[in-house]
Design a protein that fits this description.
The protein has 4 helices and no strands. With 66 residues, it is an all-alpha fold. Helix 1 (2-13) packs across helix 2. The longest helix is centred in the C-terminal third of the chain and has 16 residues, at 47-62. It is elongated, with a radius of gyration of 14 Å. The protein starts with a helix and ends with a helix.
Amino acid sequence: APLEEILRAGQRSGEFRAFDPTVMATMIQRAVDGLPFLLAAQPGLDVPAYAAEVVTTFELATRAAS
């Protein structure tokens, strides 16, 4: 899958820590796919805040140690 390959390339370059690319790609995809369901349940959802939180979560989950 393209997202898994992006994650693997990041691991090879040292930008990302060691993790299972399949699991991480699945979680990233579900965060994106779940947004329409959240909007249906919460029409006033702050989408920019949701996006920022998702980005922060995955940056922290994938970042290599400095």
